Automatic annotation (TrEMBL), chain A:
This is GPI-anchor transamidase component GPAA1. The keyword Oxidoreductase does not apply. It is a multi-pass membrane protein. Heteropentamer. Part of the GPI-anchor transamidase complex, consisting of PIGK, PIGT, PIGS, PIGU and GAA1. Interacts with PIGK. One of its GO terms (molecular function) is GPI anchor binding. Component of the glycosylphosphatidylinositol-anchor (GPI-anchor) transamidase (GPI-T) complex that catalyzes the formation of the linkage between a proprotein and a GPI-anchor and participates in GPI anchored protein biosynthesis. Binds GPI-anchor. It comes from the Eukaryota. Keywords: Disulfide bond, Endoplasmic reticulum, Glycoprotein, GPI-anchor biosynthesis, Membrane, Transmembrane, Transmembrane helix. Pathway: Glycolipid biosynthesis; glycosylphosphatidylinositol-anchor biosynthesis. It comes from Carlito syrichta. It holds the Pfam family Gaa1. Its main location: endoplasmic reticulum. GO terms for biological process: attachment of GPI anchor to protein; GPI anchor biosynthetic process. The lineage of its organism: Eukaryota, Metazoa, Chordata, Craniata, Vertebrata.
Automatic annotation (TrEMBL), chain B:
It comes from the Eukaryota. This is GPI-anchor transamidase. Pathway: Glycolipid biosynthesis; glycosylphosphatidylinositol-anchor biosynthesis. The active site is at H144, C186 (nucleophile). Belongs to the peptidase C13 family. One of its GO terms (biological process) is GPI anchor biosynthetic process. Keywords: GPI-anchor biosynthesis, Membrane, Signal, Transmembrane, Transmembrane helix. The keyword Transmembrane helix applies. The lineage of its organism: Eukaryota, Metazoa, Chordata, Craniata, Vertebrata. The gene is PIGK. It is found in: Endoplasmic reticulum membrane. Heteropentamer. Part of the GPI-anchor transamidase complex, consisting of PIGK, PIGT, PIGS, PIGU and GAA1. Interacts with GPAA1. Interacts with PIGT; this interaction, via a disulfide link, stabilizes the expression of GAA1 and PIGK and links them to PIGS. The keyword Transmembrane helix applies.
């Protein structure tokens, strides 16, 4: 008879699996972490290359010389802005018209769910100004966007100046096959989101925006620019977008080619690129850059206007000019030439960028790791959960079979229904209660902020964060209360069934997250998987409890903040770290409501209930 | 004696006059790719078109097939022009170019119909190849190709077998006297491997497994302007004028590997004449043979010319016999396998009878009740 239907062989197989399970799990976990760390090293990284044929191998010569004009525009913009306090809309309209664009404005307003402490805004209303350069000899079916986000705290004057000078230069060329939209947004990302929603005629985030009067066709690519000084020492590029989405790698390759051509110093994650990949220095620096990218992608924040464009499948990048203490500086002409070259090459496109990778990791600007090479790391980690679940299944089944054998000749049916019946009811209660806690964590902080501010002397943002932490900590007290609900004759093996369900739930969630946002999935898996695997009611409870708390989602967030600042060579003290943690929590909730970021609902509704199930398993009586 | 020498000399010249068998020249110039980044293929074709026109073939005898979206492409910084050299000296598009098949009309079907003459009656005259059995035809093709095929406009391909069959149809319909086939694509030599009709000479820019490379990157326009092989062929053709005596062997030497990076190839085994006797202008130009003499020449019927043509006829017949219809799909050549020895199988009826015997014996021995173990 078959291997799985023969009871004798099956028991032998089960015993083999149970014996080998622990070493296999440890091996798999170690393999996953090692594979991840090895991603920065040569066999797993490849050099980047241009995949799109239309963008081709020929360089174009840039002719931008409007540096002085850009500086003039920037000074005017700064002066008018100081005078009016907000975006000088009328001045921008006049200037764009004088340069030769079709100018339109769009107003938007939004009341944030609670006041934003970092940007100091609550009821936001503003105006976006954009000018369209029509392609002289083509139908307006496709367009490219150059956008500069302006807000009250970040001065982007030189970027606006460069945008206007580039617009003047582009207007004099006849080789444009796509329209070019020059967009200046107010309240940086809020304005960008309002513009994008109105452009694509959707309403995803509840922002009220007036409809757009002028439109230019499907957007093929966008570049966002942030420049605050007349000269720059390097250009930093940001690729991670909302919910960890990334632009097509070809756009980054394009930027990097022009960096090389113009001799510009370009950085990724604020780190210089190591040239030496044959010895160990290059890969080690690559590992730091990779970790920074993983942390930024896992946070799911849009790190610039480009992050919001990605949602509409418009490939976009943000370029930031950094002015540090290096000696060699580049002026606006150099930056302008880079942008001109990029736009000219993007002009050659016939289809959307689709030839190169959409999912990748970057150890350096000229190296990448493709999804086929980094996925096994997450796979190994999730395998641990699968193996543990298999072991529990076999133990449960053995327990059932053991009962059969001791039960003797009377059919097994008499013993099965009670065992299964108790199993089901003892599972449903913890599941429902954990999920309810998750829902409470998601809804209550923002809903109850006004009640909290009435009773406690805190501001709304602080109220939200503190409610969040309070509900999170309240979940720790659950096991003592759920026992009132669970029937008293819960068998000793009931915790196995609960742990089995929790493991499968965790594996499903992490698997789905890892597919779209590998960094988030891997980070959560790396911390949650080992403790999820070892948790059981027997054994040293305080130790397991401490481990479980240390690997809960909130603690992972705290730890990754410290790691992030450590990698950026600006380490935090404990107090600063805690403050940053509170700010991050507030920002996370806020971004969920303003841009639709999914980290907060994922953690609150998905991973926190799952973690609570493990907490219940730990305190099973 | 002097008079007889002159007489002999003019007779010899008169014989030479009829040396090549053609009386008119045609050219079919095909660019098979479209899109802005294939600018160089259009520039290639237009450059050959310019040379061929300069050497005398009129537009009425040229069938030009171009994607034709370069000169008026919105991305062209110099509208209405196509340049083949980055010095921008010569605008090969000009203002008197006559494109016969433009844009989406450049398809495999149209190309084959032009070659074989199977054209609907409504087709205008400028789109027809009205050649006869005394026409020398130049066929130039450029684009993206591979081993055994040439890509037409991103949606279809023509294989070397189809091309060879088209040429055979032309031969059988007496639509050409001699044919010169030039192809400038990657792995171009694969396209002439399958030709089997007589009087075809073929040149390609690269061998199988090699890529043809482009030349002349132009940063002002932002594309490559020409391919290497055609660039050097054009340099060579610039020195040809209608009375040049340069022959095909010189054309075979154009663009050695040091300049072209790929190895150009040629095929002359189907051609009757020796390549060193074939003038470039036999194919690239339309040379009107006019000689002014003050002597009267009596053309003997049964000597000199008729004899030579009769000899040619005999040679033709001798050569024609060995030519037979090539195997359409020589699998052994393609797969390079030795034919397998087939194992001997006993005849079918025998096997059937054997099985019937076995089943009968089985049931006899074990009885019918064992049937349920089988079904």
């Amino acid at each position: 008879m078959g291997l799985l239907s023969d009871p004798v062989r099956r028991r032998a197989l089960a015993r083999l699996v149970l014996r080998l399970n622990a070493p296999l799990c440890v091996l798999s976990y170690v393999a996953g972490i090692t594979w991840f760390l090895a991603l920065a090293f040569p066999p797993l990284t490849q050099r980047t290359y241009m995949s799109e044929n239309a963008m081709g191998s020929t360089m174009v010569e840039e002719q931008f010389v409007g540096g002085d004009r850009a500086r003039g525009f920037a000074r005017d913009f700064a002066a008018h802005r100081r005078k009016s306090g907000a975006l000088p809309v009328a001045w921008l309209e006049r200037t764009m018209q004088s340069v030769g664009l079709e100018v339109y404005t769009q107003s938007f307003s939004r009341q944030l769910p609670f006041p934003d402490e970092t940007h100091e805004r609550y009821m936001v209303s503003g105006t976006n100004v954009y000018g369209i350069l029509r392609a002289p000899r083509a139908a307006s079916t496709e367009s490219l966007v150059l956008t500069v986000p302006c807000s009250s705290d970040s001065t982007n004057n030189q970027a606006v100046g460069l945008l206007l000078a580039l617009a003047a230069h582009f207007r004099g060329q006849i080789y444009w096959a796509k329209d070019i939209i020059f967009l200046v947004t107010e309240h940086d990302l809020l304005g960008t989101e309002a513009w994008l929603e109105a452009y694509h005629d959707v309403n995803v985030t509840g922002i009220q925006s007036s409809p757009l009067q002028g439109r230019a066709g499907a957007i093929q690519a966008a570049v966002a620019l942030e420049l605050s000084s007349d000269v720059v020492t390097s250009l930093d590029v940001a690729v991670e977008g909302l919910n960890g989405q990334l632009p097509n790698l070809d756009l980054l390759n394009l930027f990097q080619t022009f960096c090389q051509k113009g001799g510009l110093l370009c950085t990724l994650q604020g780190k210089l690129q190591s040239q030496d990949w044959t010895s160990l220095d290059g890969p080690l620096q690559g590992l730091q850059t990779l970790l920074l990218m993983v942390l930024r992608q896992a946070s799911g924040r849009p790190h610039g206007p480009h992050g919001l464009f990605l949602r509409y499948r418009v490939e976009a990048l943000t370029l930031r000019g950094i002015n540090s203490f290096r000696q060699y500086k580049y002026d606006l002409v150099a930056v302008g030439k880079t942008l001109e070259g990029m736009f000219r090459k993007l002009n050659h496109l016939l289809e959307r960028l689709h030839q190169s990778f959409f999912l990748y990791l970057l150890p350096a600007l000229s190296r990448f790791v493709s999804i086929g090479l980094y996925m096994p790391a997450a796979g190994f980690l999730l395998l641990v959960l699968g193996l543990k679940a298999l072991e529990l299944w076999m133990q449960l089944h053995e327990a059932g079979v053991g009962l059969e054998e001791t039960g003797g000749g009377s059919g097994p049916s008499a013993l099965h229904p009670p065992a299964q019946g108790v199993g089901l009811t003892s599972l449903v209660a913890p599941l429902l209660i954990s999920q309810a806690m998750g829902v409470a964590l998601y809804i209550l902080p923002v809903l109850g902020q006004h009640v909290a501010t009435q009773h406690f002397p805190v501001a709304e943002a602080e109220a939200v964060v503190l409610t969040l932490l309070a509900i999170y900590a309240a979940g720790l007290a659950l096991p003592h209360s759920t026992h009132w609900v669970v029937s008293p004759q819960a068998p000793d093996r009931g915790w196995m069934a609960l742990k089995l369900v929790a493991l499968i739930y965790l594996a499903l969630q992490l698997g789905c997250i890892a597919l779209t946002n590998f960094s988030l999935g891997f980070l959560l898996a790396a911390t949650m998987v080992p403790t999820a695997a070892v948790t059981k009611p027997h054994g040293p409870r305080p130790l397991y409890a401490a481990l479980l708390v240390l690997t809960s989602p909130a603690a992972t967030l705290l730890g990754s903040l410290f790691l992030w600042r450590e990698l950026q060579e600006a380490p935090l003290s404990l107090a600063e770290g805690w403050q940053l943690f509170l700010t991050a929590l507030a920002q996370g909730v806020l971004e969920h409501y303003t841009y639709g970021a999914l980290l907060f609902p994922l953690l609150a509704l998905g991973l926190y209930p799952c973690w609570l199930l493990f907490w219940n398993v730990l305190f099973w009586k | 004696m002097w008079a007889s020498f002159i007489c002999w000399w003019t007779q010899d010249q008169a014989e030479q006059f009829f040396r090549s068998g053609h009386t008119n020249n045609w050219a079919v110039l095909v660019c098979t790719s479209r899109f802005w980044f294939n600018y160089r293929h259009v520039a290639n074709t237009l450059s050959v078109y310019r040379s061929v026109k300069r050497l005398g073939i009129p537009d009425s005898h040229i069938v030009l097939m171009l994607a034709d979206d370069m000169a008026c492409n919105p991305r062209n910084p110099k509208p209405a022009t196509v340049f083949s050299h980055k010095n921008m000296e010569l605008n090969v598009y000009g203002d008197d170019v006559e494109v016969d098949y433009r844009s989406y009309e450049v398809t495999v079907e149209n190309f084959l119909r032009v070659l074989t003459g199977r054209i609907p009656p409504s087709t205008p005259r400028s789109k027809r190849l009205l050649s006869d059995d005394r026409s020398n035809i130049l066929i130039y093709m450029t684009g993206h190709g591979g081993n055994g095929f040439l890509k037409f406009q991103d949606s279809e391909e023509i294989t070397n077998i189809e091309l060879a069959d088209a040429f055979e149809q032309m031969w059988q319909k007496r639509r050409y006297n001699e044919l010169l086939f030039i192809i400038d694509t990657c792995q171009g030599a694969s396209m002439y491997e399958r030709f089997y009709s007589p009087n075809i000479m073929a040149l390609a820019s690269s061998q199988v497994g090699e890529d043809s490379l482009s030349h002349q990157p132009d940063p002002a326009i932002g594309v490559h302007l020409m391919d290497r092989y055609t660039f050097y062929v054009l340099e060579f053709l610039e020195e040809i004028n209608p009375d040049s005596q340069t022959n095909m062997n010189d054309l075979f030497q154009v663009c050695p590997k040091s300049l072209c990076v790929s190895t150009p190839g040629h095929r002359t085994d189907l051609f009757q004449r020796d390549p060193k006797n074939v003038l470039i202008t036999d194919f690239f130009g339309s040379v009107r043979k006019v000689e002014i003499t003050t002597e009267t020449i009596s053309l003997q019927r049964d000597s000199g010319i008729m004899e030579s043509s009769h000899e040619e006829g005999q040679r033709d017949e001798e050569l024609m016999e060995p030519l037979k219809y090539a195997e359409q799909l020589p699998v052994a050549q393609i797969i390079h396998q030795k034919p397998k020895l087939k194992d001997w199988h006993p005849p079918g009826g025998f096997i059937l009878g054997l099985w019937a015997l076995i089943i009968m014996v089985f049931f006899k021995t074990y009885g019918i009740k064992h049937m349920k173990f089988i079904f």
